[in-house]
Specification:
single chain; five-stranded mixed β-sheet; 22 helices; nine-stranded mixed β-sheet
């Protein structure tokens, strides 16, 4: 038997290959027919969204009567979608499947098809999301801690159990609708199986399937006009699962017993926000950085796809050129330089977290192979909040110049006060006007709320320990200032990130921090009349406090201003002795590490609570070169 050979598409910009699954009985060999369709968008078809799985393992199928090697997950999906009779098959539309319909060995065709990916999914009659069979090998990597779920074991997975779990999804959707409209009478409490932990555990298995971790599915889902989820032979609309997940994340007034409410954080519904664009938080599709931030946990086999795979869901595509022939480092550097030159601002630096650590990228280029800095309040401020107010002005725009082209008389007339930047001839260094703030002389531990957490539904003790540890470190620093109550002065502003007016209800957060600290020291009586209300309020406060603590650390700058506290993401690897600067017209300060008298490494963005954007109080304007 010969191996399948592709015939080149006559017009890769318009033509498509589509797959027909040959009908057969369950035990028969899997066979497909691949056809090239001129002007493919005129043909009715459906597109498959799935995970490739391990690329090293392949199974044989027949494609146009010839041998074709497919991943086991794809082969299982094809079998599940295969009709048993020709009568059924006549009703089924052909499929567009990337692993089969694109010649993966032809880089030019691959580049062209990737550019068309959004259009391909947009024109499909529906997108079929394959999440696997009722039980999958990947389930062995996902271990439910049965002690936390308060159940002895999980029933053997079967179609009946999966069907009941999807019925639970339907009632969750109805509950969500009922909370918005009093007309709906069917409520979650009417579904007597809602208290069955076995079904919740099975639903949790569904949410933890590898599909939710894949980067490409974000574009595939966002572009679809209709999406259905296929689980074994069972099928439900994607919108139903997404609505149910939102209710799990924010149960509101849902009448759920305490044992169910306690396991909701364990179900994994948050994984919906990793793939569904409309469910993501703080996303602005006109700013590619916000989408990159929300998709950084998604997986892809080629690190260049960090940029390429999301182009179909953003408007901000001017600076990215799809080209799989150049190395990933050049892809990232080209994108960063083009963006800085086009926009004239430095907001891309907010995505850097010690990018030069690996030694193959300049420090001013985001290394998308690694996590961003995780100071989320600071990120929201720089990318969603303050930048929105200035989006249509030139206040943040700097002047990009070539070395030596800035005349001294222009600089003397204030051009440098607006901000000047330029690139070295080899494109590896970025020089920018800057003002020094000071040196880091105190640095706390990195807040880790999650590691070895005994009960993921109760963060109180861990959060309180971290806050107390940070306060103790700062209190012991030389010259630490105390207020009239004997508390460390201004630590609350540093902890809560006083980013007014972009942080709403800051005063409420500050007041609740005091009440929360008191309750941590003196737990209330569970029998008290208002215990449930207070508990709900404190849990909501902890939801706001978590991103301000987890993965972050506080520091003190040895400077010239009262209350010089700051915070930085722990994965930036800040050190005592690092310098804090304001770069150009940036909204926030940055931590730099001096390499030589004239050159620095960018460590990452930071927050300082006294920072107002004014130039007063900072050192004299100079210039730094980032390498």
């Amino acid at each position: 038997m010969y191996d399948f050979k592709y015939t080149p598409l006559k017009n890769p910009a318009t033509d498509l290959r589509l797959v027909l699954i040959v009908p057969a009985r369950k035990q028969d060999h899997l066979s497909c027919i691949l056809n090239s369709i001129p002007d493919g968008h005129l043909q009715k078809y459906q597109a498959l969204s799935y995970t490739w799985g391990e690329g090293t393992t392949k199974v044989q199928i027949l494609l146009n009567g010839q041998r074709f090697m497919a991943t086991p997950n794809l082969a299982t999906a094809l079998r599940s979608m295969r009709c048993e009779t020709e009568a059924e098959d006549n009703k089924q539309l052909p499929f567009w499947i990337d692993a089969i319909c694109i010649n993966q060995e032809d880089s030019a065709e691959r580049d062209e098809q990737v550019r068309r990916m959004k259009s391909i999914y947009q024109h499909a009659q529906q997108v079929v999301i394959w999440l696997g069979d009722y039980i999958e090998p990947s389930d062995q990597y996902y271990h439910l801690d049965l002690n936390k779920w308060k159940i002895d074991g999980i029933e053997t997975t079967s179609e009946a159990v999966a069907h009941a779990a999807l019925k639970l999804v339907t009632f969750l959707e109805q509950e969500s609708i009922a909370q918005e409209s009093p007309v709906v009478s069917i409520r979650l409490e009417d579904f007597h199986h809602s208290q069955n932990l076995q079904l919740w555990a099975q639903l949790s298995r569904l949410f933890h399937r590898p599909w939710f971790e894949r980067l490409w599915v974000i574009q595939e889902l966002a572009a679809s006009r209709k999406a259905v989820l296929l689980w074994g032979k069972l099928q439900i609309p994607w919108s139903r699962l997404e609505t149910a997940a939102r209710l799990i994340l924010r149960p509101g007034k849902a009448s759920l017993p305490l044992q169910i409410r306690r396991i909701l954080p364990l179900v994994g519904a948050h994984r919906i926000t990793q793939v569904a664009l409309q469910s993501m938080f703080n996303v602005d599709t006109s700013d590619i950085l916000t989408v990159l931030h929300n998709t950084q946990q998604a997986k892809c086999s080629d690190p260049r796809d960090r940029l390429f795979a999301i182009l179909g869901v953003v408007e901000d595509t001017n600076d990215v050129e799809i080209d799989y022939s150049i190395p990933v480092q050049q892809v990232y550097r080209n994108w960063a330089e083009k963006r800085i030159r086009r926009t004239g601002n430095l907001n891309i630096l907010n995505a850097c977290a010690d990018s030069s650590r690996s030694g193959d990228l300049p420090s001013w280029v985001p290394d998308l192979r690694r996590r961003f800095g995780q100071d989320k309040p600071l990120w929201i401020f720089t990318q969603i909040g303050a930048s929105e107010a200035w989006k249509h002005t030139d206040v943040l725009r700097m002047h990009v110049v070539e070395e030596g082209s800035l005349a001294p008389e222009k600089a003397a007339h204030g051009l440098d006060a607006v901000g000047v930047l330029h690139f070295s001839d080899d494109g590896q260094k970025l020089s920018v006007s800057a003002r020094p703030i000071g040196f880091i002389n105190v640095l706390t531990t990195i807040g880790d709320v999650e590691t070895n957490l005994q009960d993921p539904t109760d963060l109180t003790a861990r959060l309180y320990d971290i806050v107390r540890d940070w306060e103790s470190t700062i209190r012991s620093a030389p010259g630490c200032l105390l207020d009239e109550r004997g508390e460390v002065k201004h630590i609350r502003e540093g902890l809560l990130r006083d980013l007014r007016p972009w942080v709403k209800d800051y005063e409420v957060l500050e007041e609740r921090l005091g009440r929360w600290s008191w309750r941590c020291q003196f737990p209330p009586d569970p029998e008290a009349e208002d215990f449930k209300e207070q508990e709900a309020e404190m849990r909501e406060f902890e939801r706001n406090l978590f991103p301000r603590v987890h993965g972050c650390q506080m520091f003190i700058v040895d400077g010239h201003i009262d209350g010089n506290y700051g915070t930085v993401a722990g994965n930036c690897n800040a050190k005592i002795g690092d310098e804090v600067w304001r770069l150009g017209t940036s909204l926030t300060p940055f931590i730099l590490r001096r390499v030589s008298e004239l050159e620095h490494r960018l460590i990452g963005p930071c927050y300082m609570f006294f920072y107002t954007g004014a130039s007063g109080g900072y050192g004299r304007q100079s210039r730094v070169t980032l390498i």
